[in-house]
Amino acid sequence: MDCSGCGFEVESGYAFCPKCGRRQPVPCASCGYLCAPDFEFCPKCGASIGAPAKAVERPAPTPSRTIVPPSRTPSLLPNIEGDRPHPDSDADRRTVTVLFADLCGFTTLSEQLDPEVMQALQNELFKELTAAVRNFGGFVDKFIGDALLALFGAPVAHEDDPERALRAALDMMARTARLGESAPHSGSPLLLHIGINTGPVVTGGLGIGTAKSYSVTGDTVNTAQRLQSLAAPGEVLVGELTHRLTRHAFSYEPLGDVVLRGKAGSVLVHRLDAPLAAPRAARGLEALGLSAPIIGRGAELHRMLASLDQACGGSAQLVRLVGEAGIGKSRLVKEFIARVGDEDRFRNVAVRQATCSPLGEQSFGALGAVVRSAAGMMQSDNGDEMRAKLAGLLTELGLQDEEAKRLMPLLYHVLGLGDPDATLQHVEPEQLRRQILYAVRTIIERRLALSPLLIVVEDLHWADAVSLEALRFVMDRLERTRLMLLVTHRPAPDNDQLDSSRVSHTALRLSPLNSDDGRRLLAAVFGEGWVNSAGELVDQILERAGGNPLFVEEIVRGLIDRGVLMREGHRWRTVAGEVATGIPATIQAMLLARVDRLPQEVRRLAQEAAVIGPRFDATLLKSVTADPGRLEAGCELLCDAEIIEEVAGSGSISSQSYRFTQTLLQDVIYQNLLLQRRTDIHGRVGAALERLCGDKPERLEDLTVLGHHFAQSAEREKGAQYLQAAGDRARMIYANDDALRFYERALTALGTIGQTPLKLAVAERIADLSGPAGRREVAHQHYETVLQAYRESGDRVASARVLRKIGRLLWDVGKRENAESRYAEAAALLDGADAPIEQAHLWQERGRHACRSGDHALAATWADAALDSVRTLTTEHVSEGGREATLVTAEALNTKAVALARLGRNLEAVRQVERSIELAEAAGLLGAACRGYTNLGVLYTTINPAKAIEVCRRGLEVARRIGDSGFQARLLANLAVACCTFTDRCPTEGVPAAEKAIEIDKALDQREHLPVPLIVLGQIHQCSGRPELAVGLFEEALDVARETDEPQLLFPCYDGLATLNLDLDNLVEAERYFSLAQGICAQHGLDPETLVVLPFLD
């Protein structure tokens, strides 16, 4: 025979052409038809390509009283065994269209005809019905008496299986009618009644021993049978999904919601009428772009280049590409980056790229990908290698050793790495989050100082919340720089996370290609000659593609795979044969059709890879696959079939990384797996990852991936543990949105199991974070669930803890009586219990609320109660419980000090805070110590300014040592007050301290504290005779203070502006501000004198 690629004469038995190397067609062992090398079944006779050429003996039918009566069992049925896959073929899940056809009046007909005549009629009928099924690419599953069960979409999927089933049904009706006209019988017409339904099924071997055969199971089959029973003679009734997928090509009569016998609920049923004379175009689904010159996107590309031009001129730009999957977003980004590299005006632009994962990003995952891109990190790099490359990046950006050393631990969090030196262990989560954002901004600024910067983030709809916040933070504060952020995402009702009023924002919605652009796209692939000669086929492709570029690509690939299109030299031609049936109608059907054509062992490998994820490492896949010896050959075949592709620069096969060519392709393969096999592979992936990561995974990314796989395996509890750990890690850096996502996934993994300690802990964490996030109903629901479980188990202390948290929720929404009721109930449970720490938390909580209510005497009493409950524990060795007791003590002492100060007992307040600092420093609770130094500096300012300066300096040293910039700002502001109140250090030390505090607060976006140094600096300028400067600072402070509506900040703003306007003889304004200041005090029950003297107690 001649080579199918170059025409060279190839000897029989050669698998490859000796001239061009192309794989050759394989003769079917059953019928001799030449099949494409990657076919698994013969398209002519349906036999397995790898099956030996031997006769298949059909077992004698077994009589059955309930299914196949002997008198109704055909003895000479049409030979359907050639269609049947091996019964041990891999079972899978897929969407299939099921057709049930039954002959009307069979029993009456059997009574009227001789059994021999009846048997011949049955055989002839089944022959005709089988031919109708085969003509439209269906598969005859079985005969049940006088009924036939046929499948469209299994064992091999087509793009238009529902439509094929309907056309086969109409053909069955016509064939049966013709048979009735020619066959001898009673004279009554032969009529069928048919039911068709589309939906998910499980396919595979059903039965045991020699009776085992390929079949399908699922409710989809039951519904089809019920529809067939409901159908009148000559009718075809279809289910809801079948109707929805075929209404563009057929007319129907709606029958409404119908209750089917034996099924709960109702089913929307339609009666098939006829094919439409002028069928409408089928709607397309999700896809990706073509590897061809970009077509039809000139206007969008021009606007993107113009935006980058503006960015290079110093005006930061945010550009969005929005569109459905496959519309061409990634293709346009690729073309844009290529143009940036080619044009001289952009020769200095640095490009950093990241693609978000559909598995869900860990905290800072998207931003971490950008940093990894900048540092040249590889997926296989371990922690030490990543740290080394990060250090190299900072050196490249020109950071000095001291500054780089300060930023490195912060950037470890962005990369999901642990800090081996625990540099920031004493920094509060909220403060740590701000410092991380500042670090990100710093390295981006340094990059911008060297050249313009283009950051590209694709598939933003999968990005983590903290990365979105960080990107917006950077854009808001670098609006006058040479920065452009380009993002792509799918349409969604809420995609405003990056919206900013400070930067130029361009949103480009990609629309489908028009017909002319579609033809140009095909011409770019096949040449103008083929497009002009193909005629109707081109029209069919464009009609089915609906303007989606990847639809065109997938249709074309399907035609090439089926041999409909063939290359001859540099030209393409259409081969005569089945054309229309090779054009996929939906993405799922198109992709599944490609997968079904893979050899079984290669398909298994693709399924194992799909469980790992859209991108996978060969080493990991080798640990997971059931056949490691075929890994290299299997990956090569998958690359040849364009199912996967190598990731550039990832190394040899042992360390090679691959990715699926389309995310949707990976998803279709994954969903095709049986749940049990999917569960098993997830477990194998998780176990392999554990071996690679060790006992204690260091990277947040590892915790996330381990949690994902084990949560989908039989070891769901282990998955929940990893996800809880990932949530705890995210919570440490105040990435609460991401922590919530991890906790909720952990709770989902635990499913319907009982209220285990792990499940209760996760639910309580979700509630802890949901309340501050404004989801109080969610928090309350989880707290109540956890509370009920603890009550049923008799755990009084845990019940009290949850009651305290519920009380806080109620207090925050103004239900103070209900909150007090919960506090009282918690106190009753703790009465007599050996739980001093929880008691201290409860009393401390009540003291805090008393302070907020203006009852400072009661606040001091509750603080004393908290101190009494843990007094015996605070001197213990620093165990975990001891540290918590010390922390509660330090907080209670601070609360008591604030209450005493508001009561005018300043010296006592000083002693309480000094004791708080002493305890905190002894236990290594340096964050709590900084809070104490902050309050002590305020208190000493009124009684001993020199001591206040000393305290502020000491606290500032501690804050710098632990790297807490938030407390540095607070202590600098207090230092400015102390220096300028009763000393002559104001110009040399006070003013610089206030200005530095403002700088830190603005850099870290600490808006709850920013008014403080603004007020302090305003007061300094007011006292120095510069009222105009003072007014500007007070007004800026007031604008920010109004955001938080905090009385302690609003009062000094109003009071300061009142006195300034009085000095400037603006009496009306002065009176207005005095009135506002008095109103704040009256509204909150505060003493104006204490706010004037001690305005900034923490």
Q: Concise description?
A:
55% of the residues lie in helices and 11% in strands. By secondary structure, it is of the alpha/beta class.
Description:
This protein has 1098 residues and is of the alpha/beta class. Helices cover 55% and strands 11% of the residues. The strands form five sheets. Strands 3, 4, 5, 6, 7, 8, 9 and 10 form an eight-stranded mixed β-sheet that branches. It has a five-stranded parallel β-sheet with strand order 12-13-14-11-15, with helices on both faces. The chain has a three-stranded antiparallel β-sheet with strand order 18-20-19. Strand 1 and strand 2 (34-35) form a beta hairpin. Helix 18 crosses helix 20 (631-640) and helix 38 (1011-1023) runs parallel beside helix 40 (1047-1063). The chain starts with 25 loop residues before the first strand and ends in a 5-residue tail after the last helix. 48% of the residues are buried. Residues 52-82, 281-290, 577-585 and 874-878 have low confidence and may be disordered.
